[in-house]
Design a protein that fits this description.
Pfam families: RVT_2, SH3_retrovirus. Among the domains are: 109 residues, no CATH class; 93 residues, no CATH class. Helix content is 21%, strand content 15%. The protein is α+β, with helices and mostly antiparallel strands and 292 residues long. The strands form two sheets. The protein has a five-stranded antiparallel beta sheet. Strands 6-7 form a two-stranded antiparallel sheet.
């Protein structure tokens, strides 16, 4: 299967490892003749979803995180689809220009489109034909009247007009424009940014703070239960002039992945509502209880 994928691909043979990974990914979701179930279904107990499968090495338009991106720059760049993300619900792409890989879920895969060779318009030379180069044959008639034009004598102009310099408007230079880096949206972008070390320091501070405040308790995972994953949130705190004051990182749980009746049964809020407070106070007054 890997040999067939590489032979029908325009990518380099050095990417055989990516072809092997996606081949295993597909075979694990294909039913076997012996059991009529896929290895994925035998392992997880669920039927695999194959709606996200795509042709290997097909063209894709992906939105990537680039430093110093300007307003008029193209939002998407053409890449090759080479696999699926390992740590998220995204795809893995290959950039032939920089020969690098990256993962993102913000992409549009075009399976029916191939990379085309762009024509360099600047190399096109247009041949110009000048009228002076064309040989002309004069036509002489029988009755030719010679016209002598009046010769206007040349005049000497001794007066020299003063030259007034024209002030050219100052054009803004690219270096004059302050380029600000956007906050990374995931861990991968934070590590690729120029402030990666600062983000690492804030992540260490966040983990240290959680350990000191006993945010979690380590327990054994019950059988058949999947833990709720978490993600890093990166933010920069700025002053009124837009200058960065400090970097802030938070480790948050993906609460949207919870299922009612499995992961939670009732909601919890640190701040009580007015109705709840009134009910509690009414019960305390009615039964003559002490409130602590």
């Amino acid at each position: 299967m890997v040999r067939s994928m590489i032979s029908h691909s325009s990518l380099l043979e050095s990417l055989w490892e990516e072809a092997l990974k996606i081949a295993i990914y597909i075979l694990n979701r294909v039913p076997t003749k012996a059991i009529n179930k896929s290895p994925y279904e035998l392992w997880t107990g669920k039927k695999p979803n194959i709606n996200h499968l795509h042709i290997w090495d097909c063209l894709a338009k992906a939105r990537t995180y680039r430093l110093h991106e300007r307003k008029l720059d193209s939002r998407t760049i053409s890449y090759y689809f080479v696999g699926y993300a390992e740590c998220s619900r995204g795809y893995k792409f290959y950039d032939p220009t920089s020969r690098s890989f990256f993962e993102t879920g913000n992409a549009r895969i075009l399976e029916e489109v191939e990379f085309g060779k762009e024509e360099n318009i600047r190399n096109v030379v247009f041949e110009e034909e000048f009228v002076n180069d064309i040989e002309t044959t004069p036509v002489i008639g029988d009755n030719v009247q010679t016209i002598v034009p009046d010769i206007v004598p040349e005049q000497d102009y001794d007066e020299v007009l003063p030259q007034t310099p024209i002030e050219q408007p100052q054009q803004p230079q690219e270096d004059d424009i302050g380029l600000t880096e956007d906050d990374p949206i995931n861990f991968f972008q934070a590590m690729q940014s120029s402030n990666s070390q600062k983000w690492i320091d804030t992540m260490k501070d966040e983990l240290k703070s959680m350990q000191e405040n006993d945010v979690w308790d380590l327990v054994e995972l019950p059988k058949g239960v999947k833990p709720i994953s978490c993600k890093w949130v990166f933010k920069t705190k700025k002053d009124s002039k837009g200058n960065i004051e400090r970097y802030k990182t938070r480790l948050v749980a993906k609460g949207f992945t919870q299922k009612e009746g499995i992961d939670y049964k009732e909601t919890f809020s640190l701040v009580s509502s007015n109705d709840s407070f009134r009910i509690v106070m009414a019960l305390v007054a009615h039964f003559n209880l002490e409130l602590h």
